[in-house]
Every structure is written in C-alpha cells, then in structure tokens.
C-alpha cells in the first residue's frame, strides 16, 4: 500500500472517530503531547467538516440570489458558458492568456475524430513594466501587435479564427463576449480600462491596425478553462477546481437558480470564487491564531479567508509561524531560531511537499532546515514533518469539504439518488504534494457518499480550455441559428396555409 493510500485510509478512519495518528514516529511522548496542543486546532473532525460544508451550502444560495448576491462572501459569478463539450466540436482556434507580466498566444486545433485538443504552437510575449502602468490603449495595441506576429509566424494571416480570452483579473461578465474590468491587480494599473469591456478594447486595438481580424471572442475564467479542457476527454466533467497559488472552483448550475441572469432553461457554469468563503466571519471558529497572523500581514486583510487556509500562497507561511512558536517554546531547535526562519515567507510551500515525501522526506527535511540556518537533530526533523502534515492535511480536508458541497448540490438540483461526475483539477498543491489529492478524495467520499467522483488533471486550462469554451460557444450559436431558421420556415408554412 502506498503512502498516499495509507494516509487516505487513515484519513477516513480518523474522521470517522478513530484517534488522530500522524507521522509521530521518532518523537518522545512528552514532546509529542506539547506539540499536539498546537496542532490540535488544525485537526478537523468529520462533524466539523460537515458544519463547514453546511455553511458553504448556504453561501452558494446567497451568492446566486438576485438581491442577496451583493453582500454574499461567495460571489457565484455567472460565466455565460451554457454547456460542456459534447464531442462534436472541431476546428482551429486562437487563445490569449493574460494574467501576469507575460501573456501567451496559442493556436489550438480541436480534432473531433481523435476527441483531442491539440496545441499546435504558442508564443510568450513580455509586457514591459512601464506598459503595465501606462495607458490601456497602449497595452491592447501591444497585445494586438503580438497576436499579429504570431499569426504571421503560424501562416494563419488571412484566416478569421475565433479566440478564447483568459483574462485573470476581477471582472464582471455580462455575456460570453462582454466582460467589464472591475479593478486591476498583480501590479497592473493601466488607465482607461477599469469599468470598460476588455473584449471591446481588444477588438478596437485590432481594428486600429486594420491588417487582420478575429472571429467570435469568448471570455474565459481559468477555473472554467480547467473544467472545459477536461470536458472534451470526459463529457461528464461538470466541475472545475484549482488548488495552486490560489484556490477556486466552478460547476454547472441549473439556470432557474441563477437569479441574476434571465432565462429558466438549461444550465450555466458558475464561477464560485470560493476563496472568499468566510470573509463574513463564518469560519472564525476554525481559524487558528496562525491563520489570523497570515491574514493580518497579507496584502488583502479580511479578504479570501478560505483561500488563506488552503492555497499554496499561504501554507508555507502558516508552517513557518508554527515553527517559530514551537522554537520560542523550546520544543524545537533547542530554542534557537535563525534569521531565515524569522523572515516572512522564507519557508516556501514547496518545502511542505518535499518534507512529506515518503522515501526522501526525512533527508529533504534536514536539507531544508540546514538551508534555513537551523541546528537540528533527528527529533526536530520529525516534529517539522508532523507540523507540515497537520497544515497540509487540514488544507486537503477543507478543500474536500467544499468540493463535496458542490457535488451534493448538483445531485440535489437534479433530484438524483446517485451522481456520477468528473472534476477537472489543476494547481501545484494538488499536483505536486505527495498525499494531498488522496486525502482530499477521502474527505469527499465521506461527505458526499452518494456521489461517485472521478478526478482528471487538466491540461492547460487557460490555453486549451479557453479554446474549448470558444468551440462550445460556437456550437451553441450555430445550433440556435439553425433553430431560428427552422422556426422561420414553420411561420412561412403557416402563412401560406392561411393564404389559401
């Protein structure tokens, strides 16, 4: 049995009420009991996880409401993506992925016969620092110029290809091809863009050039892209989840429950923005003193409470704060800290994955502690591993509880006794941590027993996934055009009959 499987079995046993047994080997009983006093707050029982799930369930409903949405911590944003792939999508697409100091342009081909999404080629373009702070028109002219260079290099000039646009900044989406920038983040502050439709700004920049054109545009959130990039391979994929630097999830909701968008029929993908869960104080009872410090010292205090307990941007810092406290209490490193250990964010989240490796974990721990300038012994390295396990384990369980809430909601929405569905997943914490995915799955099995969930790791949600969103939008538009035309024919026939 692998380490991950053991931990999954242990996880299910623990949460069902058995004793809490982490990596306690090599730690003397008196030290262990003192360390456990700090780590106990990170151990969430099955009952507590069920409570967390019930709170999130209420918040999902609040976020979907026409009036309650405004004050809801979980925003539940409509994406205007109205279907998942059905396997008939095909053709060539462009994808544009802007979310940081670089942006990518991709040429993606969807091959129906092979049920595959192929990345034909891509190019990375830099955005100079001054351009991130200059006029918006200059930024979009730069994007249009880079897109032109790419089309020339791919010999695609002259073709009018549809484009999927992943724009990873806070936006209010009004339609599949209309998205208003709420505010810049990540060091951008271009004038004349906030409050404007970014699709319109891109199209205007292309028209200013006048030497090429693009087809229909679909705005894509990276979480939705994650779901859609898996949805072509597995058409039962109706949830997307990211657990990396940040965390978020999306799922297919019944249109009749999406009160902020007109229409009762069919479904729409909802971008939950679940990182904001707890921003109204609903998770105070499970926040530890270390979570409070992480929040207060972050660039956005009081915001993204759930994300700060789960995602890669913060896990390393929670561990560091715990290690400092245990050292001050003389339970680690003979009470001697180091300059590195006292430096915020010096303990990287990737260290947790390396420390928890089954075979090389102990050696990795000792190398990391040496790198941090600490004098350690064998007991110290075992305690550090125990701390990492407690923090990553809580993250996996909270994430599992939230995912179970979405799966249960889909099942209840559809009045099913049993739901079989697939989750498209991305993010370094999920992909790189040795036991995270297994522990998350064990939690979902306990909290959503009537749901049979398959997990698929996404391939390039913001590239291939964006192209897939565009392909599905095109298919739906084509189908509705055909419907309109056939409706018209019936009207014509009725008129003819009346005229006879």
SSE layout:
Blueprint lengths: L2 H13 L13 H11 L6 H19 L12 E2 L12 E8 L3 E10 L4 E11 L2 H4 L3 H18 L9 E5 L3 E5 L2 E4 L16 H12 L7 E4 L1 H10 L5 E7 L3 E8 L12 E5 L17 H8 L8 H6 L1 H17 L20 H7 L5 H11 L6 H36 L5 E8 L1 H5 L3 H12 L3 E7 L3 H39 L1
Parallel strand pairs: 2-5, 5-8, 9-12, 12-13
Antiparallel strand pairs: 1-11, 2-3, 3-4, 6-7, 9-10, 10-11
Key features of this structure:
alpha/beta, 500 residues, disordered C terminus, globular, 16 helices, single chain, 5-stranded mixed beta sheet
Mean pLDDT: 90
Q: How many beta strands in the DSSP annotation? A: 13
Portion of residues within helices: 40-55%
Rg on CA atoms, Å = 25 Å
Class based on secondary structure composition and strand pairing:
alpha/beta
Run of helices and strands: HHHEEEEHHEEEHEHEEEHHHHHHEHHEH
Shape: globular
Strand content: 15-25%
By DSSP (H or I, 4+ residues per run), the number of helices equals 16
Widest beta sheet: strand line-up = 1-11-10-9-12-13
Main beta sheet, described? 6 strands, mixed
State the separation between the terminal residues, measured CA to CA: 80 Å
Q: pLDDT under 50 segments (min length 5)?
A: 16-21, 489-500
């Amino acid at each position: 049995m692998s380490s991950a499987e053991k931990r999954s079995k242990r996880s299910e046993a623990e949460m069902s009420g058995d004793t809490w047994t982490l990596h306690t080997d090599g730690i003397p009983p008196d030290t262990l009991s003192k360390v456990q006093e700090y780590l106990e707050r990170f151990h969430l029982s099955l009952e507590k996880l069920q409570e967390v799930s019930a709170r999130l369930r209420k918040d999902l409903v609040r976020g979907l409401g026409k009036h309650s949405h405004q004050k809801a911590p979980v925003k539940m944003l409509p994406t205007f993506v109205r279907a998942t792939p059905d396997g008939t999508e095909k053709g060539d697409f462009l994808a544009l992925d802007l979310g940081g100091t670089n942006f990518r342009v991709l040429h993606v081909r969807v091959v129906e016969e092979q049920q595959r999404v192929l990345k034909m080629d891509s190019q990375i373009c830099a955005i100079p620092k001054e351009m991130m702070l200059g006029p918006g028109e200059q930024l979009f002219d730069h994007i249009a110029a880079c897109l032109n260079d790419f089309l020339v290099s791919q010999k695609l000039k002259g073709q009018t290809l549809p484009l999927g646009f992943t724009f990873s900044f806070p936006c209010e989406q009004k339609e599949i091809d209309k998205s208003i920038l709420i505010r810049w983040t990540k060091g951008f502050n271009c004038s004349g863009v906030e409050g404007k439709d970014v699709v319109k700004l891109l199209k205007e920049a292309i028209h200013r050039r006048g030497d090429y054109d693009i087809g229909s545009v679909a705005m894509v959130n990276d979480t939705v892209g994650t779901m859609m990039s898996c949805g072509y391979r597995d058409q039962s994929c109706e949830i997307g989840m990211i657990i990396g630097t940040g965390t978020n999830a999306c799922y297919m909701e019944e249109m009749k429950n999406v009160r902020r968008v007109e229409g009762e029929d069919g479904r729409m993908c909802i971008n939950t923005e679940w990182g904001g869960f707890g921003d109204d104080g609903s998770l105070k009872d499970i926040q530890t003193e270390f979570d409070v410090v992480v929040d207060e010292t972050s660039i956005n205090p009081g915001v993204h409470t759930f994300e700060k307990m789960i995602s890669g941007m913060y896990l390393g810092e929670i561990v560091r704060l715990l290690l400092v406290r245990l050292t001050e209490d003389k339970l680690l490193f003979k009470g001697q800290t180091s300059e590195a250990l006292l430096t915020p964010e010096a303990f990287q989240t990737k260290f947790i994955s390396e420390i928890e490796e089954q075979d090389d974990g102990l050696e990795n721990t000792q190398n990391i502690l040496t790198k941090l300038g600490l004098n350690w012994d064998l007991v110290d390295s075992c305690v550090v591993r125990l701390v990492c396990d407690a923090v990553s384990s809580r993250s996996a369980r909270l994430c599992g509880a939230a995912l179970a809430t979405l799966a249960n909601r889909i099942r209840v929405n559809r009045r099913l006794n049993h739901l079989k569905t697939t989750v498209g997943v991305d993010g370094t914490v999920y992909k790189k941590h040795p036991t995270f995915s297994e522990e998350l799955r064990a939690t979902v099995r306990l909290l959503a027993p009537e749901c049979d969930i398959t997990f698929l790791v996404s391939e390039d949600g913001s590239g291939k996934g964006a192209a897939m969103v565009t392909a599905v939008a095109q298919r739906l538009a084509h189908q509705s055009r055909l419907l309109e035309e056939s409706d018209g024919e019936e009207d014509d026939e009725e008129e003819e009959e009346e005229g006879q």
